Amino acid sequence: MDKRMASLADAVADIPDGASVMIGGFGGSGVPIELIHALIDAGPRHLSVINNNAGNGHVGLAGLIEQGRVDKLICSFPRSADPRVFTELYLAGGIELELVPQGTLAERIRAGGAGIPAFYTPATYGTELAKGKPVGEFDGKSYVQERWLKADYALIKAEAGDPLGNLTYRMAARNFNPIMAMAAKTSIAQVSRAAALGDLDPEVVITPGIFIDRLVEVADPQQEEDLNRQEAAYP
After folding, report:
1. Would you state the pLDDT for residue 27?
2. Which of 6, 162, 195, 226 is the most buried (most CB within 10 A)?
């Protein structure tokens, strides 16, 4: 099945109001800026977004939040380099935050993709983040039960992808992208290079095509940090 899409707009056109959306990236590394901006253009509202942070400046995730499209954010680092958009909206009561330690966030997403409904971790035991969650004792130590995280859609960024959706990543840009691709009902990838069938060495494929539903080439992707240095805003 050829999973290539004609445009970014086509790739995100059916994301509805109220959808849950995972967005890959770690800081600016591996962030699918173009897909996020296409989502802004598409117009869905009341989104629940799962991301490592709360966005920076006025582009990418910060731009999506600034347009009033996000009702809830699940993340590890709401305070990052320039989180003014999220901070102002959160302090005004305009957005809900679920704070999750980074390792727990990654494992909740991985568990969602692996079909594991819950697991135990000591990370938040004895803190406000554990309030209301089941606690178990193992070998004399207390652990908090955490539930899997899944989403309706995932927007991810990869280095190369073939028509079947097999993906490779560039260095640290791999980060959350592979596990998010596994944990969403519909996974949409932007790739810097569209590879022909047979061009990708199976030994370096990180995300098998079975986890990818749509693929769109963005040959010269923008970098969040560069846009912020230019004081860019979207739209």
Report:
1. 87
2. 162
